[in-house]
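A protein record pairs a chain with a discrete description of its three-dimensional fold. The shape at a given residue is found from the number at the same position. Here is what such a record looks like in full:
>
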Amino acid sequence: MNIPRSFIAAAASLAVYVVFGASALAGQQPDVAPSTSGAHATRRTPTWTDTSPHKSGFVQANGVRLHYLDWGGSGETLLFLAGLGHNAHIFDDLAPEFTDRFHVLAMTRRGFGQSDCPATGYDVATRVADLLRFLDALRIKQVILAGHSIAGDELTAFAAAHPERVEKLIYFDADDDPVTDPRAQEIRAGSQPEAPELPKQALVSWDALFRFLYSMLAITPPSRALEASMKDSFLVHPDGSVERRTPANVYREMMKGYAFAPLDYTRIKQPTLSFYSDPSTAPDPERRKEVAAMMSSFIARIEKSGPQIRIERIAGSHHYMFIDHQDEVTRKMKLFLEVESDRAEPAKPVN
């Protein structure tokens, strides 16, 4: 996987540090296997047991069929959005923690998981329109949005375009900035983004894929959420080898969408909780320094939106802090949501 060095550094906390960029971030140069979606008639969706306590459904929204998971619960709607390369299942462990006070859902964006995979529509404006129509289809008037990594583009743009529909925002390493990202600058200048790939040896079986992912993402196995997300993201061949479901072009279009995203954080006025992973977990001193500097600039920028922004740094965490530090993230999310809900309630009269 050939990614510019500056972009690799950014990836530790941004959109491209996901499953498919991890080997490059770790400084490896493995043989890679290109996506061959569409090339094998014998591939099939894997059979697996989904043990997370949710219902699975689809809605037609903005011309595409979108898959979502519903963990139930009552109260305000809390909707999770996954990072690049993932789907709603990545929240299989985190989401059930909030059903005591919220109606909890997760949506899979177009191009991934079981959602439709059209050739176009991966710019941020279209993805925001998908989200709006998804909420309309389910008759959700207001929502708490929580997004990981590249989902921050959708959170920021949606909150700016439809502020009346958003109660609160929660970012997981997600307040990226295409204006200052060197790779995004290259794309805007005409460079074609590369589709991230996985090493060939990681695709020979499910076991090989999971061993690779757990190692590269520094997640302690087993993670029901990570494995469920991958089972919904890959196809399996008769010989047991696996293949990414999403075509390479979708990743390229997503990166173009990110590069040209008109993100204006000054328009975020909703109560916002922004989580950040620990730069010290980057694989070498140079990248730790680069990621720390970048993260500091992101924090300084989002804090300019106003006092409604709450920053939480999770010590020792990696990009998937809601998995590797789930208990701490859950506790801080609940505190934020409960405090802000109490503030929003009108004062009760004193008798």
About this structure: Confidence is low (pLDDT under 50) at residues 1-41, 346-351. The chain has one domain: 5-344.
